[in-house]
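Let us practice reading a record.
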Amino acid sequence: MKGVVSGVRDYGNRMGIPTSNGAVCFDENFVGNPLVFCGNVGIMPKDKADKKVFPGDLAVVVGGRTGRDGIHGATFSSGELTHKSEEVSGSAVQIGNPIQEKKVADTILTARDRGLYNSITDCGAGGLSSAIGEMGEELGAEVYLEKVPLKYKGLSYSEVWISEAQERMVLAVDQKKIDELIAVFAAENVEATVIGKFTGDGHLRLFYDGNKVCDMAMKFIHDGGPAITRTATWKKSSFKEPRLRRQKDLTADLLKLLASPNIASKEWIIRQYDHEVQGGSIIKPLQGIRGGGPGDASVTQPVFGSKKGIALSCGINPDYGKIDPYWMAASAIDEALRQIISIGSNLDRCAILDNFCWGNTNKPDRLGGLVRASQACYTIAKAYGVPFISGKDSLNNEYSTGKKTISIPPTLLISCISVVNDISRCITMDIKKSGNPLYIVGLTYDELGGSQYYKMKGYTGNDVPKVDAVYGRSLMTKLSKVIEKGYIRSCHDCSEGGMAVAIAEMAFAGGIGADIDLSKWAPPKGQPHLSAEKMLFSESNTRFVIEVSDEDKFLTYMSGFPVWKLGAAAKNKRLTIKDLNNKIVINADIDGLRAAWKGTFGNL
């Protein structure tokens, strides 16, 4: 885990990229296949968004040199791991150089602005084979592999072709502009080498030292493979459903929950990263007094002087996938979107990305779960009106010990990006003022299946949180308008740990306590009667805890939607929660809550 943190820190920040949003999840079945998701967002001129390769364009590789590091990286990342994987596949891991990457990126932007290339792609999975293969799909290409710059001698032509060494890009360049382009790269001490051209005859031809080593039709490469038919089956898992013993005091449970690995503070990671690079950080990963609480989405101002910002969020919960991958995917989308709403943005300019990591999809049950998750992505995103604009997948994440196979839990990360129209209207999650009313927006159901509360007690459960996206869309749209009008001071979505954790985080982030009385005000229509444990720790979707600045106007605008007054921000530094029977079930000092939240990883 520390190695992953170091890698993200050293590469991104050295390139001058702020690390502004993220999540960390723990599960015992990640022990053989730890997962790492990294995303990057940039801005570009609209007139540079289109690219096209023309017959006669030269194929130019720019940036780093090619080595054996990264050979079979894509196949390695999609294969089952064993105790011998490190020994057998060590060379599959690329060796990165962020300084080289920064030089390449800056020089490419200069060349872009001067119109010196027609198309561009990176050497990702498959290296030159996929980069040239994709760019030349419609035209064909010929490549002279001996011209590719190498880190050292001794690579075969096949190794040159498939190496996934980092910091390399392939450009399609008009022959009339090649001298100018090479001069631009040379001025920044970045290598740019012509390795072939795009022909127009529909064939891929590879040469090495005068010998033709490959001649294939592009149509066959892209469409010639046989269609693969696999069997997908899915049967709903059944787990032991615990009988919760009614407890008079849930304070200890809340403290333990705040200290659980999936909820506890990740400040030790966040402080190693720099979210202030380039000076555009508006809503930061940690919020409140001295950055004392976990934010929902982040907001960055990419262009100084503009009111517009970019909001980033993510939704992930592998524990739901153990019960039903459909509702896991639905919940991840809902979580990513409600975090965007929580900071004051809206659904109008949202787009999402899927990041699937799964077990061995040759096994029908694994594939069946993946199909269900994909169906949820389609159905829920369509109902919310948000497009999937990109994504990735990594399959066969299983570890074999020879006697036992450990599969990761079905895991889907949903990343969300949104355009914030006015960054000055963004809000954070920390309570701002004693006496302000606190409300919950949305309905809470008996949905503790896959919850952190059950996990803490050693259970999985069956009642996984569901999503009603039609209702969710109308509620989020209305709430975002109320936030825009300024009637809400703070907002925090209910996710891991449910409502009790959300309230606690808001309280210790703001340094202000909260008096919550679930019996004093009538619950909204449709809210079922639940025990204190289920009410406080259920992780039902599409819910927000909010601090209201203008109660009358808030209630007027939210008329017809489920809102329930929880209480108010306190004048002291204590969190007290009374259940539906007017019994105090949580009574804690917020400094103690903060200490529990920060203590788990405090010594790392």
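A brief commentary: Residues 73-77 have pLDDT under 50 and may be disordered.
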